[in-house]
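Allow me, if you will, to draw on your knowledge of protein folds for a short while. Thank you for your consideration; the sequence and its tokens are set out here:
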Amino acid sequence: MRKEVWSSVATLLVALALGGGLLAMSRDANEDEKEARELVRYYETTVRPVEIELGLAWWKANITGTDEAYAHKTEVQKKLDRLLSDAAVFKRLKRLVDEGKIDDPVLRRQVKVMYLTYLPKQVPPELLDRITEKENAVERAFNVYRPVVDGKKLTDNQVREILRESTDSDLRRRAWEASKAVGRVVEKDLLELVALRNEAARRLGFDNFHDMMLVINEQDPEEILRLFDELDELTSEPFTQVKAEIDRRLARMYDVRPEDLRPWHYHDPFFQEAPNVFSVDLDDLYRYVNVVDVCRRFFEGIDLNVDDVIDRSDLYEKPGKSPHAFCIDIDREGDVRVLANVVPSERWMETMLHELGHAVYSKYTSRSLPYLLRTESHILTTEGIAMMFGRLSKRRVWMEQMGILPRYLPEGVTAEEIEKVGAEMIRYQMLIFSRWTQVMLRFERELYRNPNQDLNALWWQLVARYQLLTPPAGRDEPDYASKIHIVSAPAYYHNYQMGEMFASQVHHALVAAVAPGVDPAEFAYVGNKGVGKFLKERVFAYGRLLDWNELTEKATGKRLGAEAFAADIRPRQ
């Protein structure tokens, strides 16, 4: 590892090299450091086992969907909440953060992380229990819900298949409406949950839950809003042009006028992904590809082996199981798992590359870091690494190097067409997603600032403003409530877009480091062990020792910005 990489973690390395001697020598240096170490030991011996227990319970609930599993998950969450709501521990942490003198940067960072972990739990236990029970009730309703179309229950994949392939506008509408109907199922509980979350935030001195969550995640609410305002200016014009071209293609596809297009014509229920309006359907290319095997071989080739992750994972559809995809690090000791519902398609190739991107971040975070710091720097940094890998599924050079092309090339299609369409899809996707995240950030911000307003109308106002979609005439349904992230990952979604920016910035820095002179759009990582080395040394090694902006600067030489993202959304010549 390069010397400069380690400059900010010198204390940790010296301590490790001396078998902990440095820490031992400074143990009595001052009372604040002594107290800090006592609190860290308490967390590792008392809280850590319950966090692991909760991870296992959360996993079982999501792969089975049973009442018993969700009840157990709820009880374990309550147990953890009770530990983290300890007012005496929090008081000591707050004093150390506000007034303490801790010279050791590793110890100081652990105390800060503990403080941020305890902060949202400093409310009455009964309020925490009510929040947990409500979150679990709504999450379970999502996981067991199945859209009904023409009297038949469908899976999420089947609804998406209709929206992707059917040319019957009325069937598309019915499938889209069925996918949104879960909003009506969970609306009441969700609004009660919003009220409970706001109550907890106000008890802690915040105006609302959304502001509190950003602060806890080391983000300034107004700075984030300014960043998204800048992103709006950056993407508005190119998105308008792309959207007009998409509308022309969709209008021809469904034999309607562009002005008659409605949300169910856009293939994804939320228009967060690019519709399949291209001259080549990449799903035809992936129809006979073993998605999991390709991912296994790819990550092995860049020295980020995922065999153990895949062996522990649950990757295919079954009744009661969550219809979505996620990665979970159970113990920060290597027990990393992925839940997915894989079918052979480009979407699931992208999804598996994405989730295994999360997995390698967790798996290869330095085990020499203390438990509290042995996790990603921030949710946006792990999302960024996941997105960086997810983009590969649309790139010709990656398909060729992985043996997908020319072996699975559809009849009558050329590799040049795959290249052109793939590049266009990536650009369209990045622009479309950037506009969708504008909706999510601004809706959640307003949801928690004023939950009593007309949320149905607010949702469609934002969708029309940022996604340029025409709302269905007369529709007054809680469509916002059909987005599971509003329930299970509140005040989180903007980090996906910040992750996109992180992905572009890391990718450009990685190419410059391991393949100097190569066009970033032409470098697909395959078989280059320098990719794994770069990520292990420049990103994964730091864990949560650095905050997200410090990590970005260490990994790329610059703080997080939009420059690399802007380069990646320019049309390729």
